[in-house]
Design goal:
Elements (H helix, E strand, L loop, with lengths): L6 E5 L3 H13 L3 E3 L5 H11 L3 E4 L9 H11 L4 E5 L4 H9 L4 E4 L4 H16 L12 H21 L7 H8 L3 H12 L3 H19 L4 H7 L5 H12 L3 H12 L2
Length: 256
Amino acid sequence: MKFTKPLIIVVEDEYIIALDLKEILENAGFSVVTEFNSVEHVIELIEELNPVLVILDVNLKMDKDGIDIGNFLLDYDKTPYLYVTSYSDSVTVNRIKATRPFGFINKPFNEIDIITNVNIVINNYNHRNLDVNRKEKTDEIIKDEIPFIIKKTIQYINCHINETIEIDELVKLTKWEKPHFSRMFNQYVGMTPYQYILNKKIDYSKSLLIENNNHIIDIAFELGFNSHSNFSTRFKKITGYTPEEFRKINNVKKWL
């Protein structure tokens, strides 16, 4: 097989989700392969096609799962990879962490999260040998290193998504001035740091609303919102539904 655009292999056996990822990535200028019949087949495709990125789901309804592929990629050490999964329990997360992925996206995802993470992971991998701590840099090298710095702040957000995240804490990770940080973040991610944090919290709350029966007020406080009403207002502004409506709709879908 020959591809005219950078190739991404998507390892997702839920047809609708795979199709959604394929459409998002192709619209962003990538070629995408989503068809496979086993974990062993995926490994063969990786070795044969040399993709610029592999996107992994965890649960593949097979003898092996996406984390087994992650372990292969860790040893293979030629291709970056990230996970897109709804699993957030400590056992699965610890298994994922052991494979040292380049990114992690919670389901349900949105287009901006996919595009942002994909572009940052690919860019960081391509420039992985740069020394980001050196003091003397040309303008070109500084430009190349910006995604590394932005990724550091995104990783912090992802690891602290169930806490109150202050923009000043993110600024400290960059050693930039706050206005410059905000401009660079907006330029590379397509939204302000505050908007990104809010979107990530709402995305994560969707998973919590679908996957467990915790009271909505408990979910709101778990994610660092100061009240149920504050959480509900922001959730509805982004999704078009209240948390209660969203949970009811998705609980119905489970039984269809």
